[in-house]
Amino acid sequence: MAKQIFKRPEALKDAIFHYCPGCGHSIIHRLTAEVIDELGIRERTVGVPPAGCAVLAYNYFDVDMGEAPHGRALAVATGIKRARPDLIVFTYQGDGDIAAIGTAETIHAANRGERLTAIFVNNGVYGMTGGQMAPTTLIGQTTTTTQRGRAPLRDGYPLDLSQMLGVAAGSVYVARTSVTSPKSILKTKKAIKKAFQVQMNDLGFALVEILSQCPTNWKLSSVDSCKRIEEEVVKSYPLGVIKDTTGKGH
After folding, report:
1. Residue 14 class from Cβ within 10 Å (0-12 exposed, 13-18 middle, 19+ buried)?
2. What's the pTM value of the predicted model, to 2 decimals?
3. 127: phi > 0 → left, psi -120 to 50 → alpha, else beta; which?
């Protein structure tokens, strides 16, 4: 008799993802759902996605979901958490959202130490709207709005939001991971779980930045997109724990 050792998480609906082939969102959705199941918090979890590639996340996560205007997820999540502190509230945001129009909401939520968990998917472009330059676009990277490559004097430098949040007084756990290999995926799951546990233990603000591949807008194959992260992107955005004041190792 066959033994089932792998199944769809209960926190993930039986729905086909709309994401492009090779996109990291599908992996990150599953990891988040697995963590919610393992922590036994599905019945009191609320997710808040804003506009962006994950705007339809409510079609996939089988938990209560809200929806925020572009960049305002952490503001909306703050309202939910303060009204219902018994709930576990997480945001799911892309770099064009959390690090551009949502910069103020992000920094102040972290600095206030809001009891929230933020999942920050960094693929270096505005994915949903056509691949324009984002705050995290690398120097020299071509996008639909930097066709000769990002130039610092014209476009500014890539924004390292996680490092900025690491110095915020209310942030407790900030980590950067990736989803380019089985090993990195397991590390990402551990980081997401810890970010939820920080909230469950009422310690403060937690964020996991995940370097994610975007084959469509990078105009690369899935394999080459993973290589690009491992060989190029990590030079500007090194992987690892940026801040951990929980007293326990990652």
Report:
1. exposed
2. 0.95
3. alpha
- Cα–Cα distances (Å) from 50 to 25, 72, 119, 209, in that order, read 14, 7, 12, 16
CB atoms within 10 A of CB 50: 28
Convert the pLDDT of each residue in 192-238 to its tens digit. 999 999 999 999 999 999 999 999 999 999 999 999 999 999 999 99
What structural domains and CATH numbers belong to the chain?
25-244 (3.40.50.970)
User: How buried is 77 (Cβ within 10 angstroms: 0-12 exposed, 13-18 middle, 19+ buried)?
Assistant: buried
Rounded Cα distance, 182 and 172, in Å = 27
HEC profile of 31-98: HHHHHHHHHCCHHHEEEECCCCCCCCHHHCECCEECCCCCCCHHHHHHHHHHHCCCCEEEEEEEHHHH
- Tokens representing 208? 């996991």
Exposure string (b/e) for 93-124, b if CB count within 10 Å is 16 or more?
bbbbbbbbbbbebbbebbebebbbbbbbbbbb
